[in-house]
Specification:
Layout lengths: L1 H43 L2 H5 L4 H6 L2 H15 L2 E12 L2 E10 L3 E8 L5 E6 L1
Antiparallel strand pairs: 1-2, 2-3, 3-4
Length: about 130
């Protein structure tokens, strides 16, 4: 009877852990898609769409006009945007940080996007 009980407990715990990991992978995948969508919006000139992904604090600092100016400065300095690729994610104090490699005509840069618990952009850095 003890063996049956222990087996059931192990199966239950394994199922819970697999379920949690699955949710974490889905959340991470969604945040990566949001990061890529943000960069795509900037490249397409959809600055309103990009700004809509920012949390309130970031939206105050990075208006659509500022995002447009920022992206234009990047293309003037580095040439046309060629694309981006996913590099990695990390976690820090409840935030998910996504790193994307950005490829321009004349150089490569790294985008760092920090997402809050509501999956809104709480930080955007060009490295």
């Amino acid at each position: 009877m003890k063996k049956l009980f222990l087996t059931l407990v192990l199966i239950t715990l394994t199922s819970i852990l697999i379920g949690c990991q699955s949710n974490e992978n889905e959340d991470e995948h969604e945040v990566i898609e949001r990061a890529e969508g943000f960069i795509n919006s900037l490249n397409e000139g959809s600055y309103e769409d990009a700004a809509a992904q920012l949390n309130d604090e970031m939206a105050d600092a990075l208006t659509p006009a500022i995002l447009a100016e920022l992206w234009q400065q990047l293309t003037v300095e580095f040439g046309d945007f060629k694309g981006h690729s996913f590099e990695e994610t990390t976690e820090d104090q409840g935030h998910t940080i996504v790193f994307l490699a950005g490829e321009f005509e004349r150089t490569s840069i790294r985008f760092q996007l920090t997402f809050d618990q509501d999956q809104q952009i709480a930080g955007f850095f060009i490295l």
